[in-house]
Amino acid sequence: MEEELNALKKEVRILRSKNEESSKVAFSASLYGSAGFKDFGPHEEATTLVYENVFTNNGNAYDSTTGIFTAPVKGVYFFNYVVFNPSDYATGVRLLKNGNFVVSASDNPNGQDREDTTSNSVSLALERGDQIHLQLIEHRRVYEDTWRRNTFSGHLLFAL
């Protein structure tokens, strides 16, 4: 009986440890990590944005070579992105879940100013393996410089 109790206690410790590790999911990245300036777009077709300058990537769920976040556990996740563009071009970025549109953020120049920032946020229930990425809308543009004003972030709120 005591042997069985000790085995169960050990199993509980292992499961708690695994649960704690799997619930540590958070990432944040900016679009461009190098010094200087860079335009993204405009393109004839929508294009995946790859946020290459990673600030944090707990759980390694964000891939900075593809721009795709893959949910490591089933749960509710929060995502936020900020888009900057200082020109006469319209800007627009949409968030996709498994290739399907969820939300977008856009700004059209009105000639009154020279710098525009827009953002959006969403909480989503994801299954393990679901993928999230940002897409530059066709014929739109974003601009990045050393101020790193284009960011993409997400984290697990709670596991399900």
TrEMBL record:
InterPro entries assigned to the protein according to its UniProt record, in alphabetical order: C1q_dom (IPR001073), Cerebellin_Synaptic_Org (IPR050822), Tumour_necrosis_fac-like_dom (IPR008983)
What protein is this chain from? Complement C1q 2
Q: Give an example GO cellular component term for this record.
A: extracellular region
| Keyword Signal found | yes
Kindly give the PROSITE patterns that the UniProt entry links to this protein: C1Q
- Keywords per UniProt: Secreted, Signal
Q: According to its UniProt record, where is this protein located?
A: Secreted
Quote the PANTHER family the UniProt record gives: CEREBELLIN 13-RELATED, CEREBELLIN-RELATED
Ranges for domain C1q come to 20-160
